[in-house]
Design goal:
The complex is a heterodimer of chains A (166) and B (625). Chain A is an alpha+beta fold and 166 residues long. Chain A is 25% helix and 19% strand. In chain B, strand 1 (9-14) and strand 2 (19-24) form a beta hairpin. Classes of the chains: A alpha+beta (166), B alpha+beta (625). Chains A and B meet through helix 1, strand 2, strand 6 and helix 5 of A and helix 4, helix 7 and strand 13 of B. The complex binds iron/sulfur cluster (3 copies).
Amino acid sequence: MSKPLFILRDPLKCSGCRLCEVACSLRHEGTVWPEASRIKVFELFPGVDVPHTCAQCRDYPCVKACGYGALKPDERTGAVLVDAEKCVSCGECVKACPGKVMRLHPATRKAMVCDLCGGDPECVKVCVEAGFNALTVIPYESVTLHVYSIVPDEVSRRLYETLFGE
Amino acid sequence: MQLYGYHGRLLEVDLSRERSREVEIEPEILEQYVGGRGLASYLLWRELGGSWREVDPLGPENLLLLLTGPLTGYYPGVKLAVSGKSPQSNGIVGSVLSSEVAIELKAAGYDGLVVRGRASSPVYVYVEGDRVEIREAAHLWGLGGRETFRKLMEELWGELKRRRLAREGLTKEPSFVYIGPAGENRVRTAAVMAKIAHAAGYGGYGAVMGSKNLKAVAVKGFGPMPRAKRPELVKILLREAWRRLVRRTGFRQWGTGSGGYYFASVTSSEPVRNWQEEWHANRAFGPQNFEAHWVKRYWGDYGCPTTCMKISAIRSGAHRGALTDAPDYEMQAYLGANLGVLEPKACIYLSSLADELGLCGIQTGNVAGFAAELFQRGILTREDIGFDLRWGDAKAFAKLLEMIARREGIGDVLAEGTYRAALRISKEKGVDALQYAVVSKAIGVGAHGVRSAKDFLPDFSYAVCVQGGDHTSAPTGLRGYKSEVSSAFDDSAVICSFNSIRELAFPLLQAVTGFDIDEERWSREHGRRILTIQRVALLEGGPDLRWRPGLDDDLPPRFYEPLPSGPFRGRAANREEVAAKRKEYFLSLGWDEQGIPRDETLEELGLGFLKPAVSRLRSELEHGS
Ligand code: SF4
Ligand code: SF4
Ligand code: SF4
């Protein structure tokens, strides 16, 4: 069923509820663990909430950066998959990521990134169920050219201006 | 005993000695007191009970407690419980605010933070993982809420990134609670603040932070919530809670602001001009009109799909730059109708100002209304205040708020809170100003009057509540003293009382902790245990004020005056009825008619350590001292 897909984010609709973080960490870690959530919602100013997650850049800078072959894109979904056995925690992928999405797991220190839950992302499900629709799944082909994640500081600055003015 | 849902330790920071250490808490204590307000009551009494009457809440010997609960992170909406000996009531108040500091503390490996002593100059405490620092805060001292937030976030976020970004990637930002100028100046109506408008207002703990020279507490943790006993069940229950909360569309859309000016028009229970009335016909607030002022955005706390908060930002005109949440019903009432201010923008402006100054909006609206009534009656004059303090004059009230926060002129007297200010003004002016003080145990009552009997609080509620005028913890019915123990549950498990669904919260508590605590057992045992400690601490009081059982367990005089207007004109609380219900209520908790816990009750609840204090209270009452 799954085709390469993309999680579209609309920070204007984000409530900062963090159901996405809770759902993500419940699925991947079996417990509530904000720092181990693959999606993170930053709130650098009150009410200015920025959901931040992997954009699966099609040139995969993280994959290219890994000298140990620990990262590879999932052919079905387009997500970057981590082979924890091969990862030596060198952090080269972290440095290569333009949106600063890739990171090392706070406990295992292995590379950690959104795996799109195999094609049916939990974070999107809860966000939609809660009626916010700040996250939605769209087919990757509807994404134009080269997208990449923008660092949350930058999104936050723009969002602040949109909401509260200068 | 294997512990679930807790780390079993607190972080203790001693500002006088500039030291920190970890303190273990016994599993039995956690099972008996659970967390938050309950644990605070136990810890405070254990530490200070022996000399409770002598402890100055604004002295270095007081403790500031920031506590989580076993449901932190495991229940929709995160809350942090703040406590200590209250500079308002001299008892124990569990004051709860929305703050991810609770999540971060758990993530850093602690169930809470205890602050002792007093720093010699302004500091903030920073916890990052297992490192704890007491840092200089001179550059933050004196700053308003928003600047404090900006500066601290910039500083800490920058530092976190410098230290960790290249090595392990981007971490989430740290969280913090802080005080504004009001707390720094030890104003007894000062709140502990988070984000922009989140306040632990009841109790006056902003002043406690100020007295410790503590501007902020910032925490960044990296770990998971403590292990739950039955994680799979937790997942199921949590999802069910989300599903139910999502269905509450009205509350989600409007938050408590949906009640704005509704209580006044329909139930006649909203404070108007210092409670002289509880009714008005203005409809400027309420969903239809108020919506236009909101940034169209849901905004909520960690893990909460209800997201009852909304943001109001005024982007042009006289009040340009004002930024606050909603305001919620309490702010609409207390920084609106109670001051005769019935214009939404003016109310947003005053709320935003109270947030900026770090003042509790309820307590400050209460004391400002009190001052305005004294002006109306000619007891306080233009000379006393410096200007005319007329109903509805938002500019004048804004000036008053600034003066309170900075303790300037009359603001210095009002900064003591309504009750203490009334005592002082009575003495200086030779009048009885206490009759205009709408407080219980020196804590201004919530914006829910009892005269019409149409709001959710029954007539005797504020009279008996161990947290004074706190509307969120007063009993809501007689058969259930249950409701006061219910609020003790919310504040101890530390969950949002708007989201508290009994059939899910207790099973979640069991699934997380493994404790065999259901609603029935909570009411019979835990809730009563917590209220009993709070009651004894309240009666012990001191050093500047103490409460007389019976006499001070009463409503403010105003509630015995008939309502002068509105559909319930003429109604008032009845003294005999209040006295009778108070008695019945006290008995139902296992206390005597005066509200002094019986020895059997202390035995039953495992509170033998309260005996010396209780027998002293009893003999003082007998000998009339
Ligand atoms: S679930 Fe949706 S609305 Fe909530 S924080 Fe995540 S992205 Fe934002
Ligand atoms: S941290 Fe692991 S996945 Fe990332 S580049 Fe190094 S080895 Fe590859
Ligand atoms: S209901 Fe409102 S106050 Fe309660 S947790 Fe949710 S957003 Fe916060």
